[in-house]
């Protein structure tokens, strides 16, 4: 009884972890299924079909390609202009700074359905046809605030004496920035870019409002397919994305800790 | 990792900016600012304007300040509005109840597995959330082990008695929708809670014990108040998107669980009644901003922005 009370939080914590991870397990297991009927809901028999022919499902790989392209471009633009804004907000005092912070916060506090529909009304009013361009505009918008917030946190936590020290050692402002400040902020920029990519790649609601009739991203493909039974290949992509993300983060952690270890060694020498 | 957590929390510890830079900050800000004004402020105005116009999609719309659309929208769709708020609130409570023990476990009891667990909380994000929500159809399906367990333990009867399910199947019910919402937004709750709880000095708990506080008092008088910033950002990050979500209610619910997002979607994209769709969208935004403002003031945390 005493043991249970002491470890209750651990037991509940592990159960909640299971709740978080079980859908991914199901996605993975059912990527090896050979469905009996149209719907991939019940385990029928083991098969590698979907893994060997990932593009066999008509239109899926095109949609995947489009989503990857949109996510790379949107994350790229949002990271560049977001990082610039983050430096402005993180290190300078200027009139309207509080209002700008509020303007950055609002898109994150707006439900996707509102953001998507209001963009649609703007595009309709201005006569801009829906398609890849409108998708990109929307994706840059909703990833931008997340990039700014992530990078700003990093910029604000910088110790100003580091740049002063660089200046004392006769570094020009440009050298001080590129050799001292930028490397220190880089992890924040990387995290912001990754977050932007993930948000863009995953988005269905905002995209659905602004894609038009013929442009189909991967989430839109999944949505359409789910209405008439999603192909097993969708599970293959889900599995690859999950374990791919784990591998990238794992690799990043290992490299990160190696680098920290390395710099510590140098310090002791 | 910390940066990712902070990004999701939205409450970065921003120190005082240090310098005046003349035109430099303006030049740095310009592209982002233009983007936010043109593609966020303007659309909001355009949405408001659209909601007050009359006409139809073929002959165009004219602004007639037709406020009757709002009356019409509310009288037709108030059940879906109410339902969205109730579902979002239930889901927020659910994520808090599940997320709190998990965040505490990761922050103070997981030892060297801390980073691994945090990564595992975030990792599902990288699998498309439609695919993961579809997986819940498999998990909750009638012949499945979860349904079997619920039936064997009598939980099905309980769910039916409180009205969360209509019959003895779990899928396509209010229960499934709220379950899906809780699942989808749980990481948004866990990460800010973790950030707050991780900073908490566990010696405070020993101090509370020394002062004869029992577990209950230690939690409510020491741990809970110190975790409030995390609770506030977590509940906001869950409630706001949950109130507008319609993926879960569409994939896991039935015709009695339709949320307001679904109505906005179909009015805009299928019925093509733009004014009423815009009015619904605007009401949703106004309702959420009002609720959030009241909540943030009550919680006394304004460091979110």
Architecture overview:
The complex is a heterodimer of chains A (269) and B (305). Chain A has a domain at 61-246: MetI-like fold (Orthogonal Bundle), CATH 1.10.3720.10. Helices cover 78% and strands 0% of the residues of chain A. Chain A has eleven helices and no strands. Chain A has helices at residues 2-30, 49-52, 60-91, 97-108, 112-126, 132-156, 160-168, 173-202, 205-210, 218-227, 232-268. Chain A starts with a helix and ends with a helix. Chain B is mainly α and 305 residues long. Chain B has a single domain (82-299), classed as MetI-like fold. Chain B has helices spanning 2-9, 24-51, 68-109, 114-122, 129-140, 145-152, 155-161, 174-199, 203-210, 215-244, 247-252, 260-271, 274-299; strands spanning 53-56, 60-63. In chain B, helix 3 (68-109) packs across helix 13 (274-299) and helix 8 packs across helix 10. The longest helix of chain B has 42 residues, at 68-109. At the A-B interface, helix 1, helix 3, helix 4, helix 5 and helix 6 of A face helix 1, helix 2, helix 3, helix 4 and helix 5 of B.
Blueprint of the fold:
The complex is a heterodimer of chains A (269) and B (305).
Chain A: H1 2-30, H2 49-52, H3 60-91, H4 97-108, H5 112-126, H6 132-156, H7 160-168, H8 173-202, H9 205-210, H10 218-227, H11 232-268
Helix pairs in contact in A: 1-11, 3-6, 3-8, 3-10, 4-6, 6-8, 7-8
Chain B: H1 2-9, H2 24-51, E1 53-56, E2 60-63, H3 68-109, H4 114-122, H5 129-140, H6 145-152, H7 155-161, H8 174-199, H9 203-210, H10 215-244, H11 247-252, H12 260-271, H13 274-299
Antiparallel strand pairs in B: 1-2
């Amino acid at each position: 009884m005493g043991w249970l009370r002491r470890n209750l939080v651990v037991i509940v914590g592990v159960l909640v972890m299971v709740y978080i991870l079980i859908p991914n397990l199901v996605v993975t297991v059912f990527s090896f299924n050979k469905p009996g009927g149209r719907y991939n809901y019940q385990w029928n028999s083991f098969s590698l079909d979907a893994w060997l022919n990932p593009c066999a499902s008509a239109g899926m790989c095109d949609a995947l390609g489009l989503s990857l392209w949109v996510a790379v471009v949107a994350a790229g633009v949002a990271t560049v202009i977001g990082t610039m804004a983050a430096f402005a907000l993180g290190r300078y005092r200027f009139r309207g700074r509080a209002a700008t912070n509020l303007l950055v916060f609002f898109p994150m506090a707006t439900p996707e359905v509102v953001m998507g529909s209001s963009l649609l009304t703007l595009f309709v009013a201005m006569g801009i046809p829906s398609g890849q361009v409108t998708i990109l505009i929307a994706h840059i918008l909703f990833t931008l605030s997340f990039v700014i917030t992530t990078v700003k946190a990093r910029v604000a936590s910088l110790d100003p004496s580091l740049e002063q020290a660089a200046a004392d050692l006769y570094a020009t402002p440009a050298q001080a920035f590129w050799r001292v400040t930028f490397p220190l902020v880089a992890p924040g920029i990387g995290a912001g870019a990754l977050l932007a990519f993930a948000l863009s790649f995953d988005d269905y609601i905002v995209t659905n409002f602004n894609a038009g009739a013929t442009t189909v991203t991967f989430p839109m493909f999944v949505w359409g397919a789910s209405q008439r039974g999603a192909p097993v290949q969708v599970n293959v992509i889900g599995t690859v994305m999950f374990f791919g993300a784990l591998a990238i983060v794992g690799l990043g952690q290992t490299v990160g800790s190696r680098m920290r270890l390395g710099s510590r060694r140098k310090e002791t020498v | 990792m910390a940066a990712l957590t902070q990004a999701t929390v939205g409450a970065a510890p921003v120190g005082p900016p240090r310098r005046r830079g003349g035109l430099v900050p303006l030049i740095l800000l310009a592209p982002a600012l233009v983007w936010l004004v043109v593609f966020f402020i303007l659309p909001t105005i355009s949405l408001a304007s659209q909601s007050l116009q009359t006409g139809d999609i073929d002959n165009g719309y004219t602004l007639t300040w037709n406020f009757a659309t709002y009356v019409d929208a509310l009288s037709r769709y108030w059940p879906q509005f109410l339902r969205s708020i109730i579902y979002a609130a239930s889901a927020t409570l659910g994520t808090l109840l599940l997320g709190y023990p998990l965040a505490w476990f990761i922050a103070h009891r997981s030892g060297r597995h801390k980073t691994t667990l945090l990564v595992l909380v975030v990792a599902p994000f990288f699998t498309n959330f439609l695919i993961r929500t579809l997986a819940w159809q498999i998990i909750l399906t009638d012949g499945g082990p979860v349904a079997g367990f619920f039936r064997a333990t009598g939980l099905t009867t309980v769910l039916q008695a409180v009205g969360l399910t209509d019959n003895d199947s779990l899928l396509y019910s209010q229960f499934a929708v709220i379950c899906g919402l809780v699942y989808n937004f749980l990481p948004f709750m866990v990460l800010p809670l973790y950030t707050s709880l991780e900073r908490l000095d566990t010696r405070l708990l020993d101090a509370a014990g020394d002062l004869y506080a029992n577990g209950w008092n230690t939690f409510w008088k020491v741990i809970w108040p110190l975790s409030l910033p995390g609770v506030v950002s977590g509940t906001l990050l869950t409630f706001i998107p949950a109130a507008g979500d319609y993926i879960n209610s569409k994939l896991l619910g039935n015709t009695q669980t339709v949320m307001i997002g679904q109505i906005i979607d179909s009015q805009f994209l299928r019925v093509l009644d733009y004014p009423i769709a815009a009015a619904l969208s605007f009401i949703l935004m106004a309702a959420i901003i009002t609720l959030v403002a009241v909540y943030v003031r009550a919680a006394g945390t304004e460091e979110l922005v």
